[in-house]
Design brief:
Number of strands: 23
Strand content: 15-25%
Distance between the termini: 79 Å
Largest sheet: 7 strands, mixed
Bound molecules: NADPH dihydro-nicotinamide-adenine-dinucleotide phosphate
Structural class: alpha/beta
Radius of gyration: 24 Å
Number of helices: 15
Oligomer: single chain
Strand order of the largest sheet: 15-16-17-14-13-19-20
Helix content: 25-40%
């Protein structure tokens, strides 16, 4: 049984209360670890430590290239230990091994990307009026509170930790209480490479206590959060006390639009990938499939045929294509949405049940599920379900597709399938969403900004945009002729 502790001021510590929480394998319901269950006091210890470390300049005043070297060392160690970390990610989250492998490789690449960014040209200079010269420089924000969810436990941690540390901030990181295992490995690596004590801290515990303290504390300068929109709203309120900088990566109900002239098999394949990859526990999932009238019947038939072939099982079986949902509570939420869909009058085309056969009865497995005959106001069309549940909508022309695509409070992602390049770009430009794809769905790159319009969030992760979120901008006005202004007479 693994024992997971918090990492504060370079030490591994238990919760002050001594409390622990059981961490379960979602494929079997078995306890795999006991995690320290921190509380507000533990969060305060970590915040205080990060504050002192930032104010001391021990990290922000290091040469940028040296910070970069620490990040490269973390990347190397992550890569060396990747086999074990992949196994642990699957054990804790449930996702198939091939997805964990992808996540760990992406996490390694993310550290390397931000290690490179820090030494690249930065800032601006302006020739304002003589004799003044203005410089614009970027500086770290200060203490950053980083709160992540359970769907990509390691990768979401790295998307925040890598740019935050690269930019010279100190951090207080909180994993989801459901999936703290790989974050533990990451902090062990942070410890091994010798990042100065107090710079990187990890607290564990419940969101409403530990997470809320991070969002509320006046010693924290910025909070960066990924998770549900309801929690995002609560964090925004908590952050208002000291006008924290905030970055929010929230949910979505993203449209995947397929026109009749699309490459049929490619579109079917991506429709499947868009919603059922990672069990549908993906913020950018293509959870609404919009099909043009003339291909509707053929497309739906082919999609159902392929959906029924998805191999579901424990993530650690290399043959598994879709694993269990992350927890019993989340599985129950998804099953309630499926019931709601039926009550709302949608047609359940396939799936809809918990899977209990073939030894899966102890895990949280849900069949890939497809609904048709939905109307725009149904909750299953409007709400983020965050599981393997697809709703299919039908449209007759480009204008209707765009109207339907934008008709939710979310604006995270969207995709278009057509072989008409001009139409693809026309439609994409009308989508009120931050991440879009043409003739594909879901690919994500460390180089490109990630984030949403509308209620899908504030700010962007990844790329140079994601780096800038962890910086403040300072203007420096330099007088090149040192003499009085003469504004007031002597
Ligand atoms: P949350 O958004 O509540 O959790 C994400 C993180 O925020 C976790 O670390 C959680 O802590 C923490 N947290 C929870 N409440 C607070 C709070 N008041 N203040 C500060 N931090 C807090 O996700 P849930 O697990 O509750 O999932 C709910 C729904 O959110 C899902 O069904 C899905 O629709 C959506 N979601 C979206 C994600 C995305 O990537 N866009 C990711 C995950 C969920 P802890 O869980 O440890 O208590």
């Amino acid at each position: 049984m693994m024992e997971l502790n918090m990492y504060i001021n370079g030490e591994w510590v238990h919760a002050r209360s001594g409390k622990t929480r059981e961490v379960l394998n979602p494929a079997t319901g078995e306890v795999i670890a006991l995690a320290a269950e921190g509380d507000v006091e533990d969060a305060r210890d970590a915040i205080q430590t990060a504050r002192q470390a930032f104010d001391s300049g021990i990290w922000s005043e290091l040469p940028a290239a040296e910070r970069g070297r620490y990040l490269l060392a973390i990347a190397d160690k992550l890569e060396q230990q990747s086999e074990e970390i992949v196994r642990l990610e699957t054990l804790d989250n449930g996702k198939p091994l091939r997805e964990s492998a992808f996540d760990v490789a992406d996490a390694v690449a993310c550290f390397r990307y931000y290690a490179g960014i820090v030494t690249k040209p930065d800032g601006q200079t302006y020739h304002v009026s003589d004799p003044m010269q203005t410089l614009v420089v970027r500086e770290p924000v200060g203490v950053c509170g980083l709160i992540v969810p359970w769907n990509y436990p390691l990768l979401m941690a790295v998307w925040k930790i890598a740019p935050a540390l690269a930019a010279g901030n100190t951090i207080v990181f909180k994993p989801s209480e459901v999936t703290p295992v790989t974050a533990q490995k990451l902090f062990a690596i942070i410890d091994e490479v010798g990042i100065p004590k107090g710079v990187a801290n990890m607290v564990m515990g419940a969101g409403p206590t530990v997470g809320n303290e991070i969002a509320e504390s006046h010693l924290v300068d910025k909070v960066s959060f990924t998770g549900g929109t309801v929690t995002g709203r609560s964090i925004m309120r908590a952050a208002a006390g000291n006008i924290k900088k905030i970055s929010l990566e929230l949910g979505g109900k993203s449209p995947n639009i397929v026109f009749a002239d699309a490459d049929f098999e490619t579109a079917v394949d991506y429709a499947l990938f868009g919603i059922f990859a990672n069990q549908g526990e993906v913020c950018s999932a293509g959870s609404r499939l919009l099909l043009e009238d003339s291909i509707y019947d053929r497309f739906v038939a082919r999609l159902v045929e392929r959906t029924k072939k998805i191999r579901i099982g424990s993530g650690d079986d290399p043959a598994t294509e879709m694993g269990p949902l992350v927890s019993q509570a989340h599985m129950e939420k998804v099953l309630r949405y499926i019931e709601l869909g039926k009550e709302e009058g949608a047609t359940l085309l396939c799936g809809g049940n918990r899977i209990t056969e073939n030894g899966l009865d102890k895990g949280y497995f849900v069949e890939p599920t497809i609904f048709t005959d939905v109307t725009p106001e149904m909750r299953i069309v409007q709400d983020e379900i965050f599981g393997p549940v697809l709703v299919i909508q039908r449209f007759s022309d480009e204008a209707e597709a765009i109207r339907m695509a934008n008709d939710t409070p979310y604006g995270l992602a969207g995709g278009v399938f057509t072989q008409d390049g001009a139409k693809a770009l026309r439609v994409i430009k009308k989508l009120r969403a931050g991440i879009t794809w043409i003739n594909c769905f879901n690919p994500t790159y460390n180089e490109a900004p990630w984030g949403g319009y509308k209620q899908s969030g504030i700010g962007r992760a990844l790329g140079t945009y994601g780096y800038e979120e962890y910086t403040e901008v300072k203007q420096i006005n330099i007088n090149l002729q040192v003499q009085p202004t003469g504004w007031f007479e002597e």
